[in-house]
């Protein structure tokens, strides 16, 4: 490493997994009072995936294996694994431990990080810090959620929104300061706790027959309330990170937004002055997969040859907590 230069964290590999089983909008027309037109026009979602058998660690393990295979790397080389999720297999052990064991990452430590839809951004920043510290050389960051495990399929407001998936990136150091993670703006505001949550199962409401009867083990969202703050929060922070780094919309190759609602994504792009063709979108095929949305976009666009070395990307998200943020990343592979 250069003595005076900054060490940057770059993405050197990507991997993903989405289950085969598809739930299309017609499926929801049969189980709740909704229709394809409403779902498409209000959210942008056409279909989403569901993992029928297995847990979040299975999604994450498959994404990690896909990554390792694609760059022909042994799991034993990994120093640390961070799994961003709100649907861990269990409270403990951490999903990261289960993934570590499944893939045989004998030399890794790791942990889970809970920041809902901003989880990947928070985990990415954390992973980059481990690399920038000089202490670790290969850090795997995974966004994984089995959202269908906490969805109430009688609640038409929310059941249509979510899907299951996982995606992973590998972070490694570089001496080239022009590549990799350049900047981040990350925020929390716990006053948003009443708009999007899962009340049951934790120390506040340990599981009882009553918590089950009251449906407290399902996700609750006041969609309208979240929409209002998300639209402003994600647009503002994405704009702020551009300003802070003297970036114009022409400089940016892609906005990589959390995929919760196409209208929130469009508002963010508009605020940044970014045209539609420079916005990564896959909400139509996966719905909202919480921590997995952003890395899933990165994997698909990279593998389709749409991003190249040197491309400037703005990753941005808004989610439960509230949590939100933006990351300025220069693609390095
Ligand atoms: O990812 C983490 C952060 N989450 C988000 O960013 C999500 C933010 N929120 C949203 O994306 C949107 O608020 C939703 C997609 C959840 C809802 O869209 P909306 O345009 O805000 O709809 P709404 O909640 O205001 O509901 C409008 C109407 C209501 O009927 P009335 O009261 O006007 O008669 C709802 O009952 O649409 C009704 N509605 C539905 N109709 C058909 C709600 N869900 C459905 C449905 N099908 N599935």
The main sheet comes to:
5 strands, mixed
Radius of gyration: 19 Å
Order of helices and strands: EEHHEHEHEHEHEEEHEHEHHHEE
- Sequence of strands across the biggest β-sheet: 1-7-6-4-5
Which band does the percent of strand residues land in?
Answer: 15-25%
Number of domains: 2
Helix percentage range: 25-40%
Structural class: alpha/beta
Distinct bound molecules: oxa(dethia)-CoA
Query: What is the fold-level CATH name, i.e. the topology of the largest domain?
Result: Peroxisomal Thiolase, Chain A, domain 1
End-to-end Cα distance, whole Å, is 20 Å
Question: From the 3D coordinates, which CATH architecture of the largest domain would you assign?
Answer: 3-Layer(aba) Sandwich
CATH homologous superfamily placement of the largest domain = Thiolase/Chalcone synthase
So what's the CATH class of the largest domain? Alpha Beta
Number of helices: 11
Gross geometry: globular
* Number of DSSP-assigned strands: 13
Overall pLDDT confidence: 97
pLDDT under 50 segments (min length 5)?
none
Main attributes of the structure:
333 residues, alpha/beta, Peroxisomal Thiolase, Chain A, domain 1, 2 domains, five-stranded mixed sheet, four-stranded mixed sheet, 11 helices, 13 strands, 23% strand, globular, binds oxa(dethia)-CoA
Can you put this structure into words, describing what you see?
This protein folds into two domains: 8-178, Thiolase/Chalcone synthase (Peroxisomal Thiolase, Chain A, domain 1); 181-330, Peroxisomal Thiolase, Chain A, domain 1, CATH 3.40.47.10. It is 33% helix and 23% strand. It has eleven helices and 13 strands. The longest helix has 22 residues, at 223-244. It is globular, with a radius of gyration of 19 Å. The two termini are 20 Å apart. The protein binds oxa(dethia)-CoA. Oxa(dethia)-CoA binds at residues 34, 38, 42-43, 117, 156-157, 160, 223-224, 226-227, 230, 260-261, 264, 288, 318-319.
């Amino acid at each position: 490493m250069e003595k005076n230069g900054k060490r940057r964290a770059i993405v050197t590999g990507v991997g993903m997994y989405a289950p085969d089983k598809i739930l299309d909008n017609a499926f929801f027309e049969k189980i709740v009072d909704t229709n394809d037109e409403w779902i498409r026009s209000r959210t942008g979602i056409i279909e989403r995936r569901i993992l029928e058998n297995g847990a979040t660690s299975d999604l994450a393990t498959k994404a990690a294996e896909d990554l390792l295979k694609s760059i022909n790397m042994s799991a034993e080389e990994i120093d640390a694994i961070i799994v961003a999720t709100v649907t861990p297999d269990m409270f403990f052990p951490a999903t990261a431990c289960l993934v570590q064991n499944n893939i045989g990452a004998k030399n890794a430590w790791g942990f889970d990080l809970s920041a809902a839809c901003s989880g990947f951004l928070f985990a990415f920043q954390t992973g980059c810090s481990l690399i920038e510290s000089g202490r670790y050389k290969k850090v795997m960051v995974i966004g994984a959620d089995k959202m269908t495990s906490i969805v109430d399929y009688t609640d038409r407001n929310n059941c249509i929104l979510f899907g299951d998936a996982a995606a992973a990136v590998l972070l490694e150091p570089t001496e080239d300061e022009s590549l990799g993670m350049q900047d981040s703006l990350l925020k929390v505001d716990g006053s948003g706790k009443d708009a999007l949550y899962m009340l049951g199962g934790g120390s506040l409401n340990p599981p009882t027959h009553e918590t089950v009867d009251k449906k407290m083990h399902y996700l609750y969202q006041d969609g309208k309330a979240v929409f209002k703050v998300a639209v402003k929060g994600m647009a503002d922070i994405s704009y702020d990170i551009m300003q802070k780094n003297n970036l114009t919309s022409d400089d940016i190759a892609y906005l990589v937004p959390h995929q919760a609602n196409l209208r929130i994504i469009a508002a963010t792009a508009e605020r940044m002055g970014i045209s539609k063709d420079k916005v990564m979108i896959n909400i139509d095929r996966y719905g909202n997969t919480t921590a997995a949305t952003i890395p899933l976009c990165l994997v698909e666009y990279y593998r389709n040859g749409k991003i190249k070395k040197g491309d400037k990307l703005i990753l941005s998200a808004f989610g439960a907590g509230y949590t939100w943020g933006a990351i300025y990343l220069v693609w390095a592979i």
